[in-house]
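sry for the spam today, last one i promise. C-alpha cells for design, 184 residues
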C-alpha cells in the first residue's frame, strides 16, 4: 500500500511513502518525521488542509501505440506560447487527481499524482517545489471541444503537450486535449 500525504495552501504538495504495515495504521507526525519533512499547523482556514488516505497499488497503464495527438499542440494557447518550452508535442500521463480548480484566465488546473510509469515527465523542480505533482491544464478552447474535467480522487489518463513552464521552472502537460477517467 502507498500512503499519500497531501497538504495545500495555494498549491498542493504531495509525497508518496511506501507503507510496510499490512494494517496501514500510521500517525501522520511519525510518518512526517521518518520522511524528513515537517507538518504544517492545522487550522480551520479553507485554504489549508491535511489529508491522509490509503491508496491501493495500481496496475501499470499501457498507453496505446498511437496517442490522440494534434498537429498544433498549442491550439487555443497561441498568445501564451512564449511562456513555455516545448519538450514534446504529445505525451500521456496517468495518475490520481489531487486538486481541480479554475484560473481567472479560464483555464482549469487538474493536478495529478503521477503513476510510477509517468514520473519521467517530472523534473527536479516538480519534485522539490511540488513534491512530485504533475500540473495539467485544460484551456477554454479544449473545454469547448468537450474535454471532461475529472473529480478529485479519480484515476485518470491525460494527453497533451509536455512543456516546461518557464516562469515557474516545472514541467506540466499544457494544454491537455484529452482526459480519460480510468476508475470503473
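last one done:
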Amino acid at each position: 500500500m502507498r500512503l499519500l500525504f497531501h497538504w495545500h495552501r495555494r498549491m498542493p504538495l504531495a509525497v508518496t511513502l511506501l507503507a510496510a504495515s499490512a494494517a496501514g495504521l500510521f500517525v501522520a507526525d511519525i510518518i512526517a518525521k521518518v520522511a524528513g519533512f515537517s507538518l504544517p499547523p492545522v487550522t480551520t482556514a479553507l485554504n489549508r488542509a491535511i489529508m491522509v488516505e490509503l491508496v491501493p497499488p495500481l496496475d501499470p497503464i499501457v498507453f496505446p501505440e498511437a496517442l490522440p495527438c494534434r498537429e498544433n499542440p498549442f491550439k487555443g494557447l497561441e498568445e501564451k506560447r512564449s511562456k513555455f518550452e516545448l519538450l514534446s508535442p504529445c505525451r500521456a500521463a496517468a495518475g490520481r487527481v489531487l486538486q481541480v480548480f479554475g484560473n481567472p484566465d479560464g483555464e482549469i488546473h487538474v493536478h495529478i499524482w503521477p503513476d510510477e510509469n509517468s514520473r519521467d515527465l517530472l523534473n527536479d523542480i516538480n519534485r522539490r517545489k511540488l513534491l512530485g505533482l504533475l500540473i495539467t491544464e485544460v484551456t477554454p478552447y479544449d473545454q469547448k471541444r468537450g474535454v471532461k474535467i475529472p473529480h478529485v480522487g479519480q484515476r485518470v489518463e491525460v494527453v497533451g503537450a509536455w512543456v516546461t513552464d518557464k516562469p515557474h521552472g516545472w514541467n506540466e502537460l499544457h494544454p491537455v486535449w484529452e482526459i480519460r477517467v480510468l476508475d470503473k
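The first helix runs from residue 28 to 35. ok im logging off now
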